[in-house]
Amino acid sequence: MSFRARVLLAIFANAVIAVAISYLSGSYFVGLFLTLPFVFWSAGRLVHYVEWSLTSLDDGLRAFKDGDFSMRLASGRDDRTMHIKKLYNEVADVLRVQRNDVYQKELFLDTILQRTPVAVVLVTENDRVVYSNTAARELFGMRLDGRLFAELLPALVAPIREAIEAGGDAIVAVPTDDRDETFHLTQRTFRLNTVAHRLVLVERLTAELRRQEVAVWKNAIRVINHELNNTIAPISSLIHSARIAQERPDRRHHLPEIYATIEERLAFLRTFLESYAQFARLPAPRRERTPWQDILDDVAALYEFRVEGSPHEEASVDRVQMQQVVINLVKNAHESGSPPDDIVVSVHRAVDGTLLRVVDRGRGMSEDVIRQALIPFYTTKPAGSGLGLPLCNEILEAHGGRMRLQGREGGGTAVTCWVP
Fold this sequence. Notes:
The structure is a single chain. By secondary structure, the protein is of the alpha+beta class. It has helices at 3-25, 28-65, 80-115, 134-140, 149-152, 158-166, 206-247, 255-280, 292-300, 319-335, 367-372, 388-398; strands spanning 119-124, 129-132, 170-174, 181-192, 195-204, 288-291, 306-309, 314-317, 344-350, 353-359, 402-407, 413-419. The strands form two sheets. The protein has a ten-stranded mixed β-sheet with strand order 2-1-5-4-3-11-12-10-9-7, with helices on both faces. Strands 6-8 form a two-stranded antiparallel sheet. Helix 10 runs antiparallel to helix 12 (388-398). The longest helix has 42 residues, at 206-247.
C-alpha cells in the first residue's frame, strides 16, 4: 500500500469511527473525544513510518558523504519509499563501479609515473607536496610527500632551484665533473577537486640532446658536402673555360668575367664555412676585469634596447666573447618581433657572480622549441644558422657560468645568464 493510500485510509477510518460513536452516543463532542486516541495512534504510526524511511535515507546519504557506496536500503513492500530506496541502491551501484574504475585508472597512471624518468611533483595551493614519483625522490634525494615544497628546494642544484622559483617553462644547463647535464622544466597550475594545484616536471634531456646533436651533425655534414659540390663543380668548369680563353686570343676578353665569377663562388663558400667553423673553434676566454657598461655600450651601437640594474658592476670575462653573447641575445629579441622598448638588458649582482638577463615581448618560444634551443644548427628562422644560442651557451660554460631560457607570462622570452 502506498503512503498516500495509508494516509487516506487513516483519515477515512477516523471519520467512520467518529461518526459511529457520535451516532451511538448521540453527541458529536463525545464521538470526537473518544476518537482522539485512535487519531493520535494512527498519526503516530504514520510519523514513525516516515521517520524510519527518512532515517534510512539519512544513513545512506551519510555513507555517500564518507565515500562508502556499499550500504543498501532494504524494503519489503511495494510503496513510494521502496521506489526511492531502489533508486538509492542503483545510484550506489553506479558510484561504486565508477569509483573502482577511477581507482584502477589512478593505479595504472601511478604505475606509469613511477617508472617514467621525468621527475613529477604535485603541490597544493598551501605548498604541500601531495604526490611525487621515484624520479622526483632521486632528484631531491629524499622523501617528498607531505612536506612543504619550499623547504625541499634547497636540496636542488642552484640552476634548477632558480628556474622552479622563477616559474614557467625553462631549460637549464647544470655543469658537473663528468659532463654538463641539461634539464627541461615544465610548470602548470590547475584545479583538482576544486583545489588549486601546481604540477612541476623536471626532465633530464642530456641523452636526448646528445642523440639529436648526432643527427644534427650528420645533417650539417650533408649540407656542407652539398654546398662544397655546388661550388667546386662550377669552379672546375670555370677554370677549364679560363684555360681555353687563355689559349685563344679572341676569347681572352672573357677572362675577367670568369675570374670574377670564381671569386664570387669562393667568397660564398668562405662565408658559408666560416659560420660553421665559428662554433667549433671557440678559443679559451681571455679574462680581464671589464665593466658591464662597456660591453653594453658596444652592443648598443648595433641594436636598440633598454638597460636596467647595475651595469657599472665589473666581471672577470672575455670582453669580445661576452659581447658576442649579448649581441646574439639582443639580435634574437629583435628578430622575435619585440618592440625595441620592450627589449631590456639588466645586470644584477648575484651570489658569487653576476646575473645578465635579456627579456623581450616577441613571439616567444614554444615548449618544443625551448627543448631544442641549445642544439647546434637547430633553428626555426628561414635564414637562421641555429648557432646563436648554442654559441652563447658554449661561451658561458667556458667562463664557468650557465644559461637559462624561459617563456614569459604575457608573451616573450627571458634569457638569464649567470657569470661567476
